[in-house]
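Technical annex, item 7. During the second reporting period the consortium partners agreed on a shared format for inverse folding records so that results from different sites could be compared directly. Each record opens with the tokenized structure and is followed by the designed sequence. A conforming record, contributed by the partner at site C, is shown below for reference.
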């Protein structure tokens, strides 16, 4: 499983999305190290699970400030779905970012 948090420098919505993502990871017993933070020219912030943008975009594109932030519930649902594809990895607690 690969989880990315993409943002532009100084994104005003980044801290809120980080907290939401970290809470969802903790709720599912996944290590925080599962999430890779990437700063660059992206719609910001974007949470991608296995390359799929949580909010339906591509995760690529112009550097813009997003207002359609994912909820903790939607992040948990995407993580659970990804874990279903690889439950043995989630159970081991290993770094899932690889």
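Designed sequence (site C submission):
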């Amino acid at each position: 499983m690969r989880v990315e948090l993409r943002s532009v420098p100084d994104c005003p919505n980044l801290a809120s999305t980080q907290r939401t993502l970290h809470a969802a990871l903790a709720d599912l017993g996944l290590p925080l190290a599962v999430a890779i933070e990437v700063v660059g020219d992206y719609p910001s912030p974007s949470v991608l699970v296995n390359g799929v943008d949580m909010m339906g975009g591509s995760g690529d594109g112009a550097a813009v400030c997003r207002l359609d932030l994912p909820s903790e519930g939607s992040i948990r649902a995407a993580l659970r779905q990804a874990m279903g594809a690889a439950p043995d990895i989630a159970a081991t607690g290993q770094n899932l970012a690889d």
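Residues 87-98 have pLDDT under 50 and may be disordered. The longest strand covers residues 3-7. All partners now use this format for quarterly exchanges.
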